[in-house]
Design a protein that fits this description.
Helix content: over 70%
Strand content: under 5%
Order of helices and strands: HHHHHHHHHHHHHHHHHHHHHH
Distance between the termini: 40 Å
Mean pLDDT: 81
Number of domains: 2
Shape: flat
Largest sheet: none
Structural class: mainly alpha
Length: 530
Amino acid sequence: MKKFFALLKVSVKSMLLSSTNSRGKSRKKAATGAGAILLIAFLGLYMSGLYSSMLMQVLSPLHMEVLVFVFMGMGALVGGLLFTAFAVKGVVFGGRDNDLLLSMPVSTTALMASRVAAIYLENLLFSLFVLAPAGAVCAFMTQSGVGHSLLFWVRLLIAVVALPLLDTALSVLLGALVAFLSARVSKGALGQNIIMGIYMAAVFWFAFNLNGMIEGLAANAAGVKESLSWAAPMLWMADGILGDWGKLLAFAACCIVPFALVVFGLGKVYRQAVTAFAARSARNDYKLSAQTASGQKKALLVKEARRFFGTPMYLWNAGIGLIMLVGIGVAAIVMQGKLDEFLAMMGGALPVMPIAAAVMGFCLCTCVIAAPSISLEGKYLWILREAPVGEQPLLWIKTGFELLLTVPCTILAGALLTVALRLSAGEGAVMLLAALLFSVIHAAFGVLMGLTFPKLDAVNETVVVKQSLAVTLGMFVPMAALGVCGLLYWLGGLIAPWVAAALPLALLAAFAAACVLILARKGPAMLRAL
């Protein structure tokens, strides 16, 4: 057991606290892990708090609170898969320390269990921040006394602990499939991107159809529950939380058995699987081919594009904001009639333009493309440094690559929102200018964070893209700047409308100029120091 906990500690550190190039600086490690934990907690709390409240408003008068836990359980399961399924490929099957750990006097089953347990802990964190707020919302809004007894919270805790076991088993199986595709199929990244694209399409479909589903619940909640017989484990969990101990035990068994089968089954062939995946990867990574790009800058841009579109973990974590940005604009056009009705009902009380600009800025905050680009070079950064290209062009290429992706999406979303929200030409121009300045800030600031907090020795790209301090700061510092812009808009509105628009634009212009100037003057020296 002592060996298992030692291996578990190593596995958890590889996910959350993997070391940076600045050895010995434990504060950076702690901040990296804390940033990842805060992000998971924020997403769980936001999703659970928002949707649990919406569902309870409809279901509480019908005494059908059980469906809240059914849907939140599904959300925790699907969200956990989103967080960990593609991370399994790197954490479980692709760790750089696998050769060292497999040579130690420990069984492959124990090593597999420690890796899987690290995935379980991340799923457990997300499950806690989804189901616990749902329980609190039910206890606060119920009309039938749900959540007013201690045993309710005991049963909820059992569900919180058990659900991630099923989530982890599914994540490991899907991650094994992804690793197999990457190792055996020449277009493995394309296959992974197709799988993830289908998954994200299902998530967006659910999000856009949520209101209709809630209306259906109000009309026929009992019928909806009966139609969910295909999700029997979630129904058992919900009924168990509300008092049926037999169904709660059945749900726990449905979670424990697959988890045990995955750990012990894959543990028996773990060494062979890791060896096969690593061997295939080694044969493909350094394949020489003709350079089709003409010119240094074009070659570097092609290199950035191949990494971005050829690394599913990078593409779907850093590119989700681009999908959201365009999706919001398209959805606004499609649902323009409903938007008009809502705005008419509000009677002009909402500041439509700044809210739209803030939504665009939030989407851009999630496009963390430039921030991890330095660290993703890894230990082969010296090859790029030895190329006949100066440090400054290298940095501008990494900055410009993000802008090549975000600027067209920003312009398209801005134009669609201007039409859908019936903004004047001046309001649309201000919104678009603010979004474009913000995209410049995000790209330049991201590169600066990548230079300041590099993670060149990360065990895999998952650690860089999901848990590095550079990515955390590259996302949340610009997000904080959005909050300051909102405050300035409110203060300026107390003086005059043009002041309300001018103050945030002035702040964004100053922030963008500062980031670009610092990157131009300090960036080359920071890159040389790596």
